[in-house]
Amino acid sequence: MDKNNKILVCISTLFLCMFLFVFFGKTNVNASGQRYSPVAYDISQYQGYLTDSQAKNLKKEVKFVILRVQDGSYKDIKFEHNVKLMDRYNIKYGVYGYSEYDDSYQARKEARNLYRLAKNALFYANDFEKTFKYNTDYSTLAWASEMKAINGGKPIVLYGSKSTLDMFNKNTLKAYNNIWLASYSKYMPNPSYTYDLWQYTDAYPSVSLNQKLDGNTVPYGGRINDLLYRKNNKKLNLNLYYHIKNMNYMKVINKKGVNLYINGKVIRRAKYGEILAIKSFKIKNNRVMAKGNLATYTANKKSVSIYK
C-alpha cells in the first residue's frame, strides 16, 4: 500500500470512529434518560399556563400530576389557572408546597396555607430542600401534625433528595403516609427506608407540553396507597373480562392481604385495602396478572378489585 493510500485509510478510520462514538454515545444517553416511564409530572409556574389541549393530552401521558401551590408564603402564580384545567378534564392531582420554614410555627402556618389553597387535592406534599438543622425533624413533624389535623384524612407526603431524607429521624419519616425521593440516576435508589414515588429525572421529554419535565415513577415495592383513589372510579366485574387496557388501580380486598410477585418471586405482601396503580390486566386460571409501571402483580381474582 502506498503512502497516499495509507493516509486515506487512516483518515477514513478516524471519521468512522468519530461517527460510531457520536451515534452510539447519543443513543446510550437517550436510552438511560428514558429508561423508566413516568406515572406523574410535577408542575409549577415555570411550565407556564397550560392550555386545554395540553391538559387533555397530559391526561393520556401520565396517571396524575403534582402541582406546586406555594414557595413558603409566595403563591405560585400559575396554580389557580392550571388547577382549573385539572378539575375540568378530571385529571388526578396532588399538590406540594416548597417549604421555607425554620421552626414549627412557620411549618404549621405553611401547612395550613397549602390546604387552604388546594382543598380538592388528592394528597399534600411537603417539599423540603432547605439546609438540615438541629430542629428540622421537630418542624417537619409539626408540618405533618398540622396537615393531618385539617385535611380530612388525605395522604401526606414528604419530598426530598436522598441525601436530605437520609438525615431525617425514622419517626419523622413514619409520620408521613408516603415518601417521595429525588435521585437523578438510571439506577433505582435503595435507602434504608421505604419510599413510594421516585423522581428519577428532571429532563423527561413530555410530548403533551413539548418541554422537559420532572419525571416520577413508582419504585419496586412502592406503595402509593390512596394517592390515585377517587370514589367515582368504575369497579369492573372480573367475571366478564379476561383482558383489558387503560386501567387505573387494583385494590386488595382479601383481609389477609395478598402476596405480590415479580418473575415468580414474592417481593412483599400487600395489606388489605392497599391501592396499586396498574396499566392493564389479564386473567388466567382465576388469577389476575396486572401490569404496573415497573412490575407485574399476580393474585387470585377473589382477592382484588380492579377499577377503571
Description:
The protein is an alpha/beta fold and 308 residues long. The chain folds into three domains: 1-33; 40-217, Alpha-Beta Barrel (TIM Barrel); 243-307, SH3 type barrels (Roll). It is built from seven helices and 18 strands. The chain has helices at residues 3-33, 52-61, 79-88, 104-117, 136-150, 162-165, 170-174; strands at residues 40-43, 64-71, 74-75, 93-98, 124-127, 156-161, 178-182, 197-206, 211-217, 243-245, 249-252, 258-262, 265-270, 275-277, 280-284, 287-291, 296-300, 304-307. The strands form four sheets. It has an eight-stranded mixed barrel with strand order 1-2-4-5-6-7-8-9. Helix 4 (104-117) runs parallel beside helix 5 (136-150). The chain starts with a helix and ends with a strand. The model is unreliable at 1-33 (pLDDT under 50). InterPro entries: GH, Glyco_hydro_25. It comes from Apilactobacillus timberlakei. Belongs to the glycosyl hydrolase 25 family.
- What Rg do the Cα atoms give? 23 Å
Strand content: 25-35%
What class would the helix/strand composition place it in? Answer: alpha/beta
CATH topology of the largest domain: TIM Barrel
Question: Which ranges are low-confidence, i.e. pLDDT below 50, for 5 or more consecutive residues?
Answer: 1-33
Strand order, sheet with most strands: 1-2-4-5-6-7-8-9
Tell me how many strands there are: 18
CATH homologous superfamily of the largest domain, by name?
Answer: Glycosidases
Form type: globular
Helix count from the secondary structure assignment? 7
Family: Belongs to the glycosyl hydrolase 25 family.
Protein name: Lysozyme
Organism: Apilactobacillus timberlakei
Pfam family, one: Glyco_hydro_25
